[in-house]
Amino acid sequence: MRTTIDRSGRIVVPKELRARIGLVPGEIEIRVSGSSLVIEPVAGDDLVAKDGLLVLPDGGPELSADDIRELRLGDQR
User: Fold this and answer.
1) Which CA distances in Å does 21 have to 31, 32, 48, 70, 71?
2) CA-CA distance, 23 to 35, in Å (whole number)?
3) Tally of CB atoms within 10 A around 63
4) What whole-number percentage of the chain has pLDDT above 90?
5) pTM given for the model
6) Dist CA 62 CA 9 (whole Å)
7) Are 25 and 42 a contacting pair, CB within 8 Å?
8) Which of 13, 56, 60, 77 sits a CA distance of 20 to 30 A from 42?
9) Which pLDDT tens digit goes with each residue over 49-75?
10) Secondary structure of 2-45 in HEC code, one letter for each residue
11) Rounded to whole angstroms, how far apart are CA atoms 42 and 26?
């Protein structure tokens, strides 16, 4: 999916991509990975402990097995 960067360095993240990872307005984490930028939501107080893991509470984004596989493998495929 393509988008643009304006002269101020702002990037529009398409709605479909924001929805897939639960990206909402507010603070994000951005870092360099090789020649790519990685944008992730900042884990806030909305995470809950469940069976020893931090998870999104009910109502978080629905992810299919393919979504999870893509997030885990990224460009390694």
Assistant:
1) 16, 18, 17, 11, 9
2) 22
3) 15
4) 27
5) 0.48
6) 30
7) no
8) 77
9) 788 877 777 766 677 888 888 878 775
10) CCCECCCCCECCCHHHHHHHCCCCCCEEEEEECCEEEEEECCCC
11) 9
Tell me the two tokens of residue 33. Answer: 């990975």
Strands 53-55 and 48-50: antiparallel
The token pair that represents 44 in the structure block? 């806030």
What is the Cα–Cα distance from 77 to 65, expressed in whole angstroms?
15
Q: Is 25 exposed, middle or buried (0-12, 13-18, 19+ CB in 10 A)?
A: exposed
Q: Computed from CA positions of residues 39, 43, 48, 52, in that sequence, does the dihedral angle turn out positive or negative?
A: positive
Q: Which two tokens stand for residue 75?
A: 């460009």
In sequence order, the β-bridge partners of residue 39 are 30
